[in-house]
């Protein structure tokens, strides 16, 4: 569940950067008035934390022992099916 929330937050951040890059319009700063500057900083921090979470999630899943052994098991299964 936390990974889905992180994906949503990172997507919001990516769309915000897209609007900054194309239209020079920052949606987060527009939503939070200058008097609510703390709210915008909280959103930026949450998006950054979500990005770090997703990087750690991808690294863990790419190099997890279960995933590494799955590749070896697939190769073994293919060899066994070819010989039969």
Describe the structure.
The structure is a single chain. The protein has 84 residues and is mainly alpha-helical. The chain is built from 4 helices and no strands. It has helices at 2-23, 27-31, 37-63, 65-83. The model has no long low-confidence stretch (mean pLDDT 85).
Overall body shape: elongated
Tally of separate helices: 4
Radius of gyration: 21 Å
Helix content: over 70%
Ranges where pLDDT stays below 50 over 5 or more residues in a row are none
Number of strands: 0
The secondary structure category is mainly alpha
SSE run: HHHH
Mean pLDDT: 85
What is the strand content?
Answer: under 5%
Largest sheet: none
**Alpha-carbon distance between the two ends:** 43 Å
Topology:
Elements: H1 2-23, H2 27-31, H3 37-63, H4 65-83
């Amino acid at each position: 569940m936390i990974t889905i929330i992180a994906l949503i937050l990172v997507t919001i951040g990516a769309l915000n950067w897209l609007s900054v890059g194309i239209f020079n319009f920052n949606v987060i700063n527009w939503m939070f008035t200058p008097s609510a500057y703390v709210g915008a900083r909280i959103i930026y921090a949450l998006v950054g934390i979500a990005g770090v979470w997703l990087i750690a999630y991808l690294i863990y899943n790419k190099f997890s022992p279960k995933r590494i052994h799955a590749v070896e098991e697939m190769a073994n299964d293919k060899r066994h099916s070819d010989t039969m």
